[in-house]
Structure formats: structure tokens, C-alpha cells
Design a protein that fits this description.
Length: 334
């Protein structure tokens, strides 16, 4: 296939691009604004691939989007482009509104004009928190944060383009991803790097919040299944095989890195913190997908990747991230 992948310089987008180029033989054009989270280093092993093209631009810029469609002549748009960190959405929601609402609108208009298939990459956070059981695609949408509320708005806009204009659009909602190339503001890479450096391990509240972990290669494959086999207008949940409380994730990381439990610090809780996420993935499993990586094994591999790839995180940890960390946690990194 020929694909236009928006937000393909980020953590999951670059994982998806790698799979489509190297495992499926697709032709891939990435359109990405390169925010703090978008990194050309994520293309390091396929940047010179003859079927790969990178264009820098924002999805809310109609000229950048139409230029990318002209260059790529794609059959489908897959949209990963987003502001993705809940804590940043609480501190500064502006970019979340413009990228998720306006950006998605611009992409949908372009897809409609060129009659393209459209895949929106979304999140389990649109359903809010669940105490027991798992969310299905029919569960009501009850987002809690500016991040999840604006992602929900984008999903509803996508569905409106299917209902109103017959745009062949599908939505893939993933649970918490982990794996290589994840920006270290997120729980797992933050804890791995802090553990390796002897820094404090800041656990929000009691640490008993539960997340449904999925390896980024598994979520990327699920998106590929939805792209190829999803029914237009439908939503597909893709959750990982394992759920775990944050404090237990941190303890696994301590064991894998040789850090000490004395590094754990319980800090103020996140405002509006969702207690538990859990997704039922029966619908995407019926398309032939199933997760391949169990959390215990995937986390060990992820710790090893961060230990072996300081070339990737060193420039982040010594750059703007330090100022973000000080603002968010009120303390400096080692
Ligand atoms: P990320 O923050 O690592 O990457 C986001 C990418 O989008 C970056 O490359 C960034 O430069 C780009 N981007 C941001 N705003 C843009 C804009 N206006 N125009 C063009 N590019 C822009 O994010 P991620 O974790 O890889 O998440 C990718 C997608 O998957 C997001 O839509 C997110 O909501 C969704 N998702 C993430 C998770 C998770 O656990 N990380 C789980 C489920 C769904
Ligand atoms: O569920 C899917 C979502 O998962 C995605 O849509 C988001 O883009 C992604 O960021 C992620 O959201 P979370 O808020 O769940 O992920 P985060 O890594 O920020 O936090 C995971 C849990 O760990 C959450 O309960 C908050 C907690 N936490 C996080 C950080 C950064 C801590 O206890 N301490 C921390 O320092």
C-alpha cells in the first residue's frame, strides 16, 4: 500500500512505519510537525529506505497536508499525530485542542477531497475509568482530562465524516503502550532512566492505579489489521494482555535495573487521575489480531533497550526535558 502516516516521528508512529516498510513492503510518507516528542532519530534504521519519505509539517496546516498528499499519492491516511501526555494537557491544554480538533478536521477534509481511507489512532482514555470489567466499543465516552476530552472530540469528528460524507474511516483505540523509543515523560521510560541514574522514582498518590499494558509492536500490528480489514465507520479496541498497578510496574523496573526501593517517592496525585483502564479486544481479535508480547518479557526487553541505547535518550535527558521535569516534579535530575 501507499500510506501517509501523520505523527510518524513519534513513539508508536515510528514503530508502525518500521513494520509497514520492512515487514509489509508498503510505501510510506510521514508528515510530522516534530514537536518535542517527534524525533528524526526514530527513523535511524530506515531513513534511507527507497520507499520512505519524510515531510515536516503540521496536520492543522492545510497546505502542508495537501502537499503531503500530492507527494505521497496515498491510498490511506493513518493519523497518529497528537499531543500525548496527560500531565502536559493539565498544565497547558492549548496545543491539545488545536492538534486534536483542528488538525483532525484538516486531515478529514483532505481525505474526503481525495477519497482516501482514513484510520484515526485513538486511546482507551476516551472511555474514562473503570473499576471492574473491561470497556467494549459500545461503552459510553467519559473522558477525564483535556488530553482525553480532545481525543474524544477527534473521534466524534471522524465518525461524523463517516455518517455524513461516507468517508471510509475507522478508529483504533489502544491501551497504555510501552517499548523502545518512548519519550521519557511517560511512566515506564521515566522510571527506567531515573532508576538507572539513581534518581527518585515519583509515584503519583498511592500507586494503585491500574493500566492495561500493550507493547508498541502489538498495537502497531493491531492498527495494521484495522487499516487492512476494518469495516468503515467501526471502532476497534486493542488492549494488551496484562494489567498491573503502577507501584508493581515500578518494582519490576527496580528489580530489572538493580535500583533500590528506597528511591520510590510517593508524590502528589495527578488531578482527575483515572484509577483503572481495561479494554476488551474481541472485535479486533476477530480480524485476526492477537497480542504477542506478555508484559513481564516486554518490560525486561524495554529496560535492556534503554540501557543499551543511551545515544537515543541522552540528548533528551540533557535538553528541554530537564526544564519540563523541574516544572512537573519540582526537582532536578541527576
Ligand atoms: P508521541 O507523543 O510519541 O508522538 C506524537 C507525534 O505526533 C510526534 O512525532 C509529534 O511530533 C507529532 N505531532 C504532534 N502534533 C502534531 C501536529 N499538530 N502535526 C503533525 N504532527 C504532530 O505519541 P505516541 O505515544 O506515539 O502516540 C501516538 C498516537 O497514539 C496518539 O494519537 C495517541 O493519542 C495514541 N495512543 C497512544 C498511547 C500510548 O500509550 N502512548 C496509547 C493509545 C493511543
Ligand atoms: O491509556 C492510553 C494512554 O496511556 C495514552 O492515550 C496516552 O497518550 C499515554 O500517555 C498513556 O496515558 P497515561 O496517563 O496512562 O500514561 P503515563 O505514562 O503518563 O502514566 C501511567 C500511570 O503512571 C498513570 O496512572 C500515572 C502514573 N505516573 C505517571 C508518571 C509520568 C506516576 O505515578 N508517576 C509519573 O511520574
Amino acid at each position: 500500500m501507499k500510506l501517509l502516516v501523520c505523527g510518524g516521528a513519534g513513539f508508536i508512529g515510528s514503530t508502525f512505519v518500521r513494520q509497514r516498510l520492512l515487514e509489509h513492503g508498503d510505501e510510506v510518507t510521514v508528515l510530522d510537525k516534530l514537536t518535542y516528542a517527534g524525533r528524526e532519530e526514530n527513523f535511524h534504521d530506515f531513513a534511507e529506505h527507497p520507499s520512505f519519505r519524510f515531510l515536516r509539517g503540521a496536520i492543522e496546516d492545510p497546505a502542508a497536508v495537501s502537499g503531503a498528499i500530492d507527494a505521497a499519492a496515498p491510498q490511506a491516511i493513518v493519523n497518529f499525530a497528537a499531543e500525548t501526555h496527560v500531565d502536559r494537557s493539565i498544565a497547558e491544554p492549548d496545543a491539545f485542542v488545536s492538534t486534536h480538533a483542528l488538525g483532525t478536521y484538516v486531515l478529514l477534509e483532505a481525505a474526503r477531497a481525495a477519497a482516501l481511507r482514513y484510520v484515526q489512532v485513538s486511546t482507551d482514555e476516551v472511555y474514562g475509568s473503570i473499576e471492574s470489567g473491561s470497556f467494549t466499543e459500545q461503552s459510553p465516552l467519559r473522558p477525564s482530562s483535556p488530553y482525553s476530552a480532545t481525543k474524544t472530540g477527534a473521534d466524534l469528528l471522524v465518525q461524523s465524516y463517516f455518517h455524513t460524507y461516507d468517508l471510509p474511516a475507522v478508529i483504533a483505540r489502544g491501551s497504555n503502550n510501552y517499548g523502545p523509543y518512548q519519550y521519557p515523560e511517560k511512566l515506564i521510560p521515566l522510571m527506567i532512566l531515573n532508576a538507572l541514574h539513581g534518581d527518585a522514582l515519583p509515584v503519583y498518590g498511592d500507586g494503585m492505579q491500574v493500566r492495561n499494558w500493550i507493547h508498541s509492536t502489538d498495537f502497531s500490528r493491531a492498527i495494521g489489521h484495522v487499516l487492512e480489514h476494518g469495516v468503515p465507520g467501526e471502532v476497534y479496541n486493542a488492549g494488551g494482555p496484562d494489567e498491573e498497578a503502577n507501584i508493581d510496574v515500578v518494582k519490576r523496573i527496580i528489580a530489572a535495573t538493580g535500583a533500590s526501593e528506597s528511591q520510590i517517592e510517593h508524590v502528589a496525585d495527578r488531578p482527575g487521575h483515572d484509577r483503572r483502564y481495561s479494554l476488551s479486544s474481541d472485535k479486533v481479535r476477530a480480524l485476526g489480531w492477537e497480542p504477542q508480547v506478555r508484559f513481564a518479557e516486554g518490560l525486561e526487553q524495554t529496560v535492556a533497550w534503554y540501557r543499551d541505547n543511551s545515544w537515543w535518550w541522552q540528548p533528551i535527558r540533557s535538553g528541554d526535558y530537564r526544564a519540563y521535569y523541574e516544572r512537573q516534579y519540582g526537582r532536578t535530575l541527576a
